[in-house]
Amino acid sequence: MAARADRKAAAAARHRLLPGGRLAGPMPWIIAIMMFLTVLAAAAGLGLGAAVRSMSADLAGRASVQVVEADAQARGQLAARTLQALRGADGVRAADPVDPAKLADQLRPWLGEAATSGDLPVPALIDVMLTPGDSDAKLDRLRRLLGGLSPKLRIEPHATFLLPLAGLLTALGWLAAGVVLLMILATGAVVVLAARGAHDSHRGTIDVLHLMGSTDVQIARLFQRRIGLDALMGGALGFSFAILVILLIGLRLSATGSDVVGAISLDPRGWLLLAALPIFGVILATLTARWTVLRALGRAL
Hints:
The structure is a single chain. By secondary structure, the protein is an alpha+beta fold. It has helices at residues 2-17, 26-59, 72-87, 100-111, 114-117, 135-149, 158-201, 203-211, 216-256, 259-262, 268-300; strands spanning 62-67, 92-97, 124-130, 153-157. Strands 2-3-1-4 form a 4-stranded antiparallel sheet. The longest helix has 44 residues, at 158-201. Mean pLDDT is 79; it is low at 19-23.
């Protein structure tokens, strides 16, 4: 009974030193905003990184062969010979002609009905997938092979067209990582200011505790506990809202039907990293508050 009374008295003393309740004061709300933005930026960086990796894996070793022939009959004959040569070529895993109707549907938004009228000579396309390995060397051999068949054959690797997009996504991913770093630094700065303010506002109480025999570590523990609880409540709130926004954005991205946009997703490891951010935030706030208060107490002596 006496031990329980002592614990209640100690808890009441801590509450009097650093009063606060659930989401009391601006500190938890500031941390919630910081955590919300940090999780969103981290999710954007992880999603863009996944999109770049998916794009690179999908485009590696893939190319398109264009049959640039104005006459439709000659174009069809040349496309048939080219397809047969590609399927027998070394380093080619698969070669499939692109359906002209599907190609016309893709060109219709830009060319209108001219894409299907037959008046416009649309090149025949053959989709080529190479075997794993040095794709550059295989493409050079295919260029020589196609050059021997006809000068009206062109081969273009898919990566060439989407390389600028991959570079843009990579740059945006690094930008998101930079935002996460800045938000972490900003959170640490907010905790430092809050700990200094709490120390200054309770200087008289701290002096009394020193006279009663309390050490700097014991006093700093009171501050770090209060700020740690604020960081826990604020981090949980900000993380919850950020996850809700991420799920809503994910639904909108999947509804676009775009392969490139749809590749922006999070794998299980990415979700684990996001879940670790609130825990890291609480640890960061607690350690920063402890260091700030101990330093302030050391200077006061």
